[in-house]
Amino acid sequence: MKRKGVEDGESIMGDISKELVEKVVTAREEGRALNIVGGGSKSFFGRTAEGEPLEVAGHSGIISYNPIELVITARCGTTMEEIKQALAEHGQVCPFESPVFAGRATLGGTLACNFSGPARPCLGSIRDAVLGTRLINGKGEEMKFGGQVMKNVAGYDVSRLQAGALGTLGVITEISMKVLPIPAATATVAMEMDVAESIGLMNRVAGQPAPLSGSAWVDGKLYLRFEGAASAVEGAVKKFGGEVMEESSAFWEGVTEQTLDFFQGDAPLWRLSVKSNAPHIDAGGSWLVDWGGAQRWLRGDFDKAELERQASEAGGHLSLFRYGDRSGEVFHTASSVQQRLQKNLKAAFDPDRILNPGRLYSWL
Amino acid sequence: MNETTISKAQLADAIRQLVGADNLIIDEETQKPYECDGLSVYCEMPMLVVLPETREQVRAVMKICHDNGVPVVARGAGTGLCAGAMPNRDGIVLSLARFSRILEIDPQARIARVEPGVRNLAISEAAGEYGLYYAPDPSSQIACTIGGNVAENSGGVHCLKYGLTVHNILGFEMITADGEVVQIGCEAFDSPGYDLNALLIGSEGLLGVVTEITVKLLPTPEKARVVMAAFDDVEKAGNAVAAVIANGIIPAGLEMMDSHAIVAAEDFAKAGYPTEAKALLLCEVDGTIEEVEEHIEKVEKLFLEQGAFSCRKSESEEERALLWKGRKSAFPAVGRISPDYYCMDGTIPRSKLAHVLLEIEKMSDSYGLRVANVFHAGDGNLHPLILFDANVPGELEKTEEFGGKILELSVDVGGCITGEHGVGKEKLRQMYKQFNDRELAQFHAIKDAFDPQGLLNPGKGIPELRHCQEYRSIEAEGC
Ligand SMILES: Cc1cc2nc3c(=O)[nH]c(=O)nc-3n(C[C@H](O)[C@H](O)[C@H](O)COP(=O)(O)OP(=O)(O)OC[C@H]3O[C@@H](n4cnc5c(N)ncnc54)[C@H](O)[C@@H]3O)c2cc1C
């Protein structure tokens, strides 16, 4: 289905992406760094940005959406809100439930940061949904990788590689991704439980055939969300018990958008991405557990090296997600071989390090 | 590109010291089974075949090869269908066959740590004890290895709902071209820095050799049932597929076969397929008992509304297995009705199916070669099987040309040249159709980032840029 206005929008948008190409080429010639900015909703993330802003929000709009193919293609500056609305009109959703951040989050930024909500362990992240991208590398070359079909193994998967790369490998200009039908029914149950016990239960529930689509723990309560066929959701609620929440969407939105009380204030927000059943880490501070135990949030001042050690022990890695010192490293220390490979890869896309240099790691 | 700086005898001596005489094959006769993968029209004999048993041995062998400019071709079970594991004449085949242990299953975290030579099906068999399984299920799952699956980003009939290999791997250990060990990904859902997991899965052994893999396991669904629906017209079947999706149902698997494939499969498997049908759909729904009952009725109703002339729902596990048996054995079944067959692997937007099948039929007539089509209809992955006889002079060449045309058609309708089998040696030429020089140059830059000497599986996956112009001008001249 072609969207209204696409025909005449095409040429204007073509020009905008040409303009972006020119800006990258000029910046490279003049040896200037660029700081790629979409809606600016995630400027808190990563290390402090260097370089001159390269605004991409103007490069926006849905290019094609075919509900029957379960695929949508949009320009990088399109807001997630617009995409979600377009999908909702056809009874579909972005499975990865990324935050819309008060309408400012764009599609390009969402892929670059690889943010996803509570459904992530069950339905994947935007990294899993992405099928193809158009991007401009650090040499100002616009290229197309992947496509609009579900399966494509020709060439290296450059599209998924953009997930979490924080724009350091290219300016993403267009994204195609897989979408899913809105589940027919949903229900959330809550139960009082301590964090250690909750982590165990989350893993046990996820190991059983049930339509689980989210499990989180905060403030002494475990929340389990089931989505799918009405009969299956009913069955799960009966089976696992707990108090059925009348209105649960506000809670899950608060987790996704980071608007719950837990996220208020400007104490450092640490993210531990770990093996789902890793024991609770008794480091003090306050915790919120999401992703069925695989994503753990911690507030407060901590020694980064010590937390890193604990995250590694738990099978995963640490990041200083928000607040705190953003001039030092905010992501997990990489091994020397990892560093070498990642630097080589950066050079393969952006030999002069002009795209978001230092945003991911000081050395990248 | 690279210059080998060591003789076969010298290399054999050095490697024998590392892995022992039992794990080294030097003579041609014993090497013979390694000359090709599942696509046997491409053959080459290697210098040596090495079967290391430990990670340290792999490292040391890779290091020697690196220092002496010797190409390395990793090999799993050799079931690949793009000549990806075909040896290099001046290099070694590095078989991972001895890496066949399941190292750990953590049922609570739903994770298994396995060696790359473990067979795909063996993982699900071992995890079954805990009510878990590994979801991606290529039709070759009895034989193919998880290492090969990682290298090809393999799919299977259940990938519509559960994703491809890339969606089901948490991390792995890899040996780099110069013999260093590196951990990619971890036991969490993401990893710091670049998502090398995503980049390396499907990289066809061009960027490193995988020596250990951490896979996700899923709870075995309480129940699964399949509906078989027969249509007298391909387009109706295509519409029926669209109707299922439009009604908000994501089946566990949704497969289509055309009349040639139906006849061959029925003859082979006696699954009860109606041989007069022009198209057959197999739609599996799984989940909790309630969910399956709700969806199976809905799907059957939709199929009938879309004009199916017969529908059959599996009433038992045996019946479900039987209905799938025909589909899962479609390749060997077709192998029985023709001396040889050539399997293509394009993907297309589902809405273009009827058009593409019609075009293939036209080409089939003009080339005088029969085609049977099996189709992962849910995710648009088409496998046309071109029937030919390699003993007829010129017929293989004709088949290859026909196959190439099908792939180009796939690209023209908005699809791609390979959905799951990979590029390997086979589809290098069609890569020019899908990517321009700039994009290919970007691929080469990625390759250089991991393997600057170009020693890992050289001549596969990404075509050389300098041939580019030649190929294109040949095409333009119409030869
Ligand atoms: C009858 C039949 C049905 C098939 N059905 C399907 C299907 O449904 N879906 C599908 O996707 N494929 C299918 N295939 C193709 C094939 O089985 C897959 O590509 C499979 O993943 C190959 O695994 P393998 O162990 O045989 O790998 P091989 O053929 O040995 O190798 C494949 C590639 O992987 C590389 N490689 C192998 N091991 C490693 C390692 N440890 N590290 C780095 N690189 C490595 C090799 O160099 C080569 O490039 C089918 C094949 C056959 C013959």
Account of the protein in words:
The complex is a heterodimer of chains A (364) and B (479). With 364 residues, chain A is α+β, with helices and mostly antiparallel strands. Chain A has helices spanning 6-30, 80-88, 107-113, 120-123, 126-129, 158-161, 195-206, 230-240, 249-256, 304-313, 336-349; strands at residues 34-37, 52-55, 62-66, 71-75, 92-93, 130-136, 142-146, 171-178, 180-181, 185-192, 212-218, 221-228, 243-244, 269-273, 286-290, 295-299, 317-322. Chain B has 479 residues and is an alpha+beta fold. In chain B, strands 12, 13, 14, 15, 16, 17, 18 and 19 form an eight-stranded antiparallel β-sheet that branches. In chain B, a hairpin with a 4-residue loop joins strand 5 (102-106) and strand 6. In chain B, helix 8 (234-246) crosses helix 10. At the A-B interface, strand 7, helix 6, strand 9, helix 7 and helix 8 of A face strand 9, helix 7, helix 8, helix 10 and helix 15 of B. The complex binds flavin-adenine dinucleotide. Flavin-adenine dinucleotide binds at residues 37-38, 73-81, 84-85, 96, 116, 138-140, 144-145, 147-149, 151-152, 154-156, 204-205, 209-210, 331, 420-421, 457 of chain B.
